[in-house]
Prior knowledge:
With 226 residues, the protein is an alpha/beta fold. 40% of the residues lie in helices and 20% in strands.
Amino acid sequence: MRILIAEDERDLNELIRRKLTAEGYSVDACFDGQEALAYLDAAEYDGVILDIMMPGADGLEVLRQMRQRGDRTPVMFLTARDSIDDRVKGLDAGATDYLIKPFSFKELMARIRVMTREKYGESSNLLQVADLSMDTASGEVKRAGRSIELSSKEYSMLKYLMMNKGVVLSRERIENHVWNYDYEGGTNVVDVYIRYLRRKIDEGEEVKLIQTVRGRGYVIRGEESR
């Protein structure tokens, strides 16, 4: 999942970025509202974390412009404004969630899981494709009861595939959701990580869950393609 953070407190911005990265998210971070809008113009995100009081354009203005142009990406406000009126104003403006500073990182991670899974129509932390399961709260991945150890990027790619089960995803779309702007690797990175996942998920299994759709990309589904 790819997340945008717009927070002008640089130390807090860095702490959130590091925490999200450690949890397997791909993260872009900026410090003012105008920069946030530029990022949103250039990439598709699975969730946005906005401070309300920012230079350039405040969080409410960023959200207003997002919704005005039809961008339905889930947005969480992160702010010291804790009055009922402030919370109502933020939610009425189209925010998905509202978290008051200071906050617990454990709670922030839980709220981000809720925010991102709702975008894909998931109602719980457990993702399932045939006998493959992923618990997005614990990070545990199993196939037919067998535990599977994944690197951070392998986990992120598998999570994105599973949240889009049955949907053919282009290489570009996968790359845009799993890697951020700091990535400077090769152009075949998606193919490389698909090979890694197939080795761990499908090798030795009768049904291959990760499938190639020639000329279009990759899909995960519980039955062999016909």
